[in-house]
């Protein structure tokens, strides 16, 4: 293969696929917002509920924590992500050797607006409480600099 063929050999995943790249996993997770989640170990349910993704990091020291309907994720704690779409519902699985953390997005800004219009509000127009509710904290480590 020549250099041009290698450069254009980037996957395109639409609704179904497996993601290994931590930067790609972060991109997907940070946009989920409010989700239903379930945690399975060896296919046995260990917990489930509803929450809001407030932090997504990639480092070797932070735990994955779900508490008080808040979800704090470290993508380094998972081997890969599997995404699929069943009956118009996205299913996002974060997978390790013996466990799965599954997310089902509750809504999207497009579905919330009956006219399917996306309404953008500048952050300066929001109160502090609205900012906390509207934006997840996203932290990127130097481990994932663009090459």
How is this structure best summarized?
This protein is 17% helix and 38% strand.
Please give a structural write-up.
- The protein contains four helices and nine strands.
- It has helices spanning 3-7, 22-30, 109-112, 128-134, and strands at residues 17-19, 34-41, 44-57, 65-67, 70-74, 80-86, 89-95, 99-105, 137-138.
- The longest helix has 9 residues, at 22-30.
- The chain is globular.
Q: Provide the helix percentage.
A: 10-25%
Strand content: 35-45%
State the oligomer. single chain
* Shape, per Cα inertia axes: globular
Average pLDDT, rounded to a whole number, is 79
Q: Please give the alpha-carbon distance between the first and last residues.
A: 20 Å
The succession of helices and strands, N to C, reads HEHEEEEEEEHHE
